[in-house]
What we know:
nine-stranded mixed β-sheet; Rossmann fold; Dihydrodipicolinate Reductase, domain 2; 3 domains; single chain
Amino acid sequence: MIPVIGRLYREHGIVPSIHGRRLVGGSPIDILKAHRFARQTADEALDPAKTLAVLETLESLDLGAASVDIARLIGRFDAQGGTYERAELADFLRSELAEVVGAEAPAPTDVVLYGFGRIGRLIARILIAHAGRGSGLRLRAIVVRRGGENDLRKRASLLRRDSVHGAFQGSIEVDEQNQTILANGTLIQVIHSDDPAAIDYTRYGISDAIVVDNTGRWRDEEGLGQHLRSKGVARVLLTAPGKGAIKNIVYGVNGDDIAPGDAILSAASCTTNAITPVLAALDEAYGVERGHVETVHSFTNDQNLIDNFHKGDRRGRAATLNMVITETGAAKAVAKALPQLKGRLTGSAIRVPTPDVSLAILNLRLGRAVTRDEINGYLRRTSLTSPLRQQIDYVESPEVVSTDFVGSNRAGVVDGLATIADGDENVVLYVWYDNEFGYSCQVVRVLERMAGAHPIVLPEHEPVAVEAVPAPVSAVV
């Protein structure tokens, strides 16, 4: 399968997956584990021979870019009694994937990363990995403040090595004379500047670019609007909660709010991205009356390593030694993506001595009674077949801990074994999230939508059924 998967990805922009488990770049063991994961929706693992037949047939079709769930295609084909004869399978796939048959690749859009910290470097890794399939997004430049004589090599070294996410998969070359980094064939111009309004990007052949501001220094239209005064910039995306009238986008929930005329957008925060899809699913099925969100969050770069002055309350205390109670605006920010929940949620946060992966605890009162099995079953099905399947994942294991979720590309992962629901309206849910990589994946999805290049997810989703639960005896009385 592996050569076929690679060609589908590079030549057609097809990203094959099995219930959301991407096959691109996977080892034989990874691919077989994905086939075993299919037991989440069926009584047995997926047959690899069927997967190979579908992949080979996909390669013979004239397809545009798409994210294709092989397991769901096989399930539909088997349900109609398919024989896997090549012509019959080809006709079926043409029908199921009609939206991308003969589709042209999107026009490329230039991307500039303003700031190259934790999120900036992960977005760079994702964009570089996607470049091979002509995704429509081209990473052209990064903008940083000069940090010294060896600035360029240090930036490249930080891209090459990461203590949390591991080594960069590929080659990186540095050209100090031209101030560029060549990463897996992607040529990145490094620009040193302190003024977002004074850069002439057209000097580097960059035009109509989307600037991704990773600094967090400016969060309102006035501050972020400085980027728009630089030559070659068309739009700006903030990787933090936006203030004022700026739209805060949680992809999968309110991505349709992105309009062609939006010059400045926000991708909200990592926590808002983790909890909003789960809340959206619950509100649709049961109604969310009110709740409290407590986030157990890994420390971040704005905290002190040892006790020192900090303008924020408690954040001056040593991040690697303490649990630190602090504020979070995530609960209020949910209302920007889900207006119906405005005023219904409160929130707080505890920073803990881990470098990545956080946990959101949702203590909710729903619109009707629910059992643990019912709500877990609903969220599991939501993670597999709903429009939110790129945002929500689901796990049931008595052994998982935070490091098991490093590198998760979902916005949040529901821990089913931790769910508390006793047959009334109150429920407690635990949602893990990689606050670095998972969030960066959400940012890239917003970027793709802004550029008109987000690959369609096929086959189309199916309605997620909500299993009824008998009313409590007291309610009947």
